[in-house]
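Researcher: Quick one. two chains, 757 residues in total.
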Amino acid sequence: MRIDPNFVPEMLANLQQSQVSLDTALEQVSTGLSVNEPSDNPTNAAAMVQNTIATGDLDVYTQNVSTALSTVQTASSVLSSVVTSLTSAVSAGTEGANGTNSATDLAALANEVEGILTSVVTAANTSVSGTYIFGGTGTTTPYTADSSSPTGYTYNGTSDTNSVAIGDQTSVQINLPGSQIFSNSSNNVLGALSSLVTALKGGNSSDIQTATASVDSALNYVGQQQVFYGNAETQLNSQETFLEQDKVTLSTQENTLIGVNESTAATDLSQAETDNSAALAAVAKVLPTSLLNYLAPPS
Amino acid sequence: MGGLNTALLIGVGGLDAAQGALDATSNNIANVNTPGYTREEAQLNELPQSDSAGQITGGGVSLEGLQSIRDELLSMQIQQQTSLQSAADTESASLQQAQTYFSSTGTDVASALSKFSSSLAELSGNSSNSAVQQGVLAAGQNLASAFNTTSSGLTSVQTAANQQIPDTVSQINSLSQQIAQLNGQLAQVPAGENGGTVEDQLDQAVQQLAGLTNISVTQTNNGETITTGSGTPLVEGDQSYNLQTSTGTSGQLEVLDSNGNNITSSITGGSLGGALNIANQVIPGLMSQLNTLASQFATAFNSAQTAGTDSNGNTGAAFFSGTSNLSDAAADMSVGLTSASQIAISSSGTSGGNGNVANLSAALTSALPSGESAADGYASIVFNVGTAASNASTQSTAIGDNLTQLTTQQGAVSAVNIDEETANLMRYQTAYEAASRIVSTVQVLDNAALNMGSGTSF
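Model:
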């Protein structure tokens, strides 16, 4: 059978193919990616869209967790100091109610409790990077002095709360409004302290006792509110761990979807180089040969 | 009985035959690299023997002519595969270009969605920070411009294909005219004789035509009848029919036959078929998905935005604008807000809270009316464009392999082999020398016969 004598086009096509393999191998090694454009692997390229978004969000979620943690921890420590203050107020009240105090003693105790009241108000007005952590969603100072109010203070915040996104579809509430913690209608911390001051100034043991009891109950109440911050802190800490794991998962996924196995890529590259030089050498060797090379020139 | 003259005639016939064969060989060698050239062979026939008084003598050789060696069936297969490959190549080139707009370049829609999503997550953690609010607005603008860029990228691919269509049609027309002319020339060649050069040119032109559109070739008495699509004639004998283009009702280019009938849908092969498929099917399909995504996402995000309250205490205004016209949604998408303070962060009816940020974020992750989230919707488009590009290129490679195989087969039949021609050269040289020796020998013998019984020699 006659064979095609014109092997140049086929040889060039083979050379081109070997060049393409070489280019692909080179691209994979130099970019470290096996999917450089959607057609390299449409399924993986499509899956990378979600991965890109999730990876971008992850850093922000991690940042949000650390910001939220600092807010929650601040709130928690502020409430601890409030609890300490209230404990001192209860001691002062108990001391004032034992009936052995002189008017001077009672005035001193009233002064002490007044000081405590001021420090609790200061605590309730705590702000973290410009945000009042007990002001609900309000942007003004939560508690300001108001002589018309029975407690002596008025609440300017809102009863709403803010939540922070710490994961896809996961958010954590990071504050309780001051109206719930400090000026709740059933356990009004500021009201109880004000009453105690008034009672101590009045000097009536039974009034002092009643007022002390309500400060004590407010103390318990604040203690209960602290649990919220403890829970939030636990949730944030566990989310932090989860996000760290998720980061590893996402980066592993990214590597699986579009990354290259470096040793495979390097092997492919060296294989492609060998193939290419073999093909070139073959072409160089075959091209010049024909029967004419072996014939003596006509005499 | 034969005499010396018979031997002389046979010798001269041999000289003619060797001469013809040498002509064929030299023509073959000269055209070894001529595209479309088909090798020629000298057709040598044994002449009838003569029977003179019971003595049978051979009649020598006659040169019937030179015959081009071709395989019409292979040519036809090559034409079909050329049409297919040309279409796949055209589509592959366009889609390679289109898919760069969907690659992870940092300015693509996926990156922009990612930035927008993370800017909203940041807003959730730091809602009162005006720099963070500004970041959301900027990320929104970035997303809108990513949609704009992708849309205009697809449009530019479509425009390029659209420009290619009339050019290709005019090339088809000029080739049809050329083929018709060659058909006319071929008709002058007596039946049974070798068309040679004309046929080579004709094959070459038909081959080129096959690269431009899908054709069907029928051999008739008047040469080749060539039709495209589902039977629209391009060439019949020495008559050619021009195709033309026109713009359809929805703005797409259409191909019309010489009578003005729309034959666009039947043009499936060649670079014309590829360009038509890109301009009228593939790009509009991708564009429609992109527009639907832009429009549905903008609507969902705007409705989350209008449900909240902005930093000025007003009900949120639409965040994205320009997406009301579905057919231009991706191209015209822009951010409607003029200030970051207009982002509806609060859900409580007054400013300060961040309750609406979760709703804004949810617009990115919840299913749109298409049934997919924005990210999944975009991922589908990436998958579609990637699959289309990969299919076109795989198809082109596969057909290319097939075509190489067919071309090799055709080469085996028709191509000039220098080794073979060199051998033939030596063979016919020897034959010519031998035939000349017959002539000179007969001359010597004639002389000898004439000199018989004579003292003087001639």
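The longest helix of chain B spans residues 130-188.
Researcher: Thanks, that's what I needed.
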